[in-house]
Amino acid sequence: MRSRGKAEPRPPPRPKQLRGEDLEKKVLEVVLSELDRVGHEKLAIEQVAARAGVNKVTLYRHWPTKLELSRAAVLLVAGETPSQPDTGTLRGDLLEQFRALRAQAREPSRRAVFRLLFDARPGDPIGELVHEIRKEKDAQVMRIYERAIERGELRPDADPRLIHGLLFGAMLGFELLRWGDEEGAPLEAVIDLVLVGVQPPPKSEQRRPARRTHAR
């Protein structure tokens, strides 16, 4: 007869094997974390595979080179940022755009992409990649400024690329170079400071007739 002792505990269920988009997302999140921790130069496929819990062969099947793996991770971050918010005003659009960028710059796994902009050296493939992606994103963002000119919120001769460059550089300076305190970039103040120099004069001044001088 069988003894009625306690049944042997069942082994824990095997973790669900990730496939497709789930696997890709997990791997790329690990890549971003490693880029923040060690940088692209020291990024190791073996370490990524170990942390993601996948076979190294699987990584090479999807991303044959370290550069392609990093590229996929950078594109993941780029796709998370709204390129053309449309709140109805230029100030509202810029606040939405740069709040999203600031949130990314404060997230360790996303911060690595912004650091690559600073660390890139001439001829560095990953640096050139990041700058190329940024150019593509900036080209999309230009529509924000075009709408503002059409609405009369900017002077017709305003340079959208100069405006965006000033705002983007200020945001990175506050967040990555720690220009300010722990609160980071005061976005509203920075945006207002830049816009005041490129906005058209008030309508009252535009309609004011020129004063005539009378010769005596």
Kindly describe this structure.
- This protein has 216 residues and is an all-alpha fold.
- The chain contains 10 helices and no strands.
- It folds into 2 domains: 20-77, Orthogonal Bundle (Arc Repressor Mutant, subunit A), CATH 1.10.10; 83-200, Tetracycline Repressor, domain 2, CATH 1.10.357.10.
- It has helices spanning 20-38, 45-52, 56-62, 66-78, 90-106, 108-119, 125-151, 160-176, 187-195, 203-207.
- The chain is elongated and about 70 Å long.
Q: Low-confidence stretches at least 5 residues in length (pLDDT < 50)?
A: 11-18
Would you list the SSEs in sequence order as H and E? HHHHHHHHHH
Total number of helices: 10
Mean pLDDT: 81
CATH topology of the largest domain: Tetracycline Repressor, domain 2
Shape: elongated
User: What gap, in angstroms, lies between the N and C termini?
Assistant: 131 Å
Proportion in helices: 55-70%
Number of DSSP strands? 0
The structural domain count equals 2
CATH superfamily of the largest domain: Tetracycline Repressor, domain 2
The class by helix and strand makeup works out as mainly alpha
Strand content: under 5%
CATH top level assignment of the largest domain: Mainly Alpha
How would a crystallographer describe the biggest sheet? Answer: none
InterPro entries: Homeodomain-like_sf, HTH-type_TetR-like_transc_reg, HTH_TetR, Tet_transcr_reg_TetR-rel_C_sf, TetR_C
Protein name: HTH tetR-type domain-containing protein
Organism: Cystobacter ferrugineus
Pfam family, one: TetR_C_11
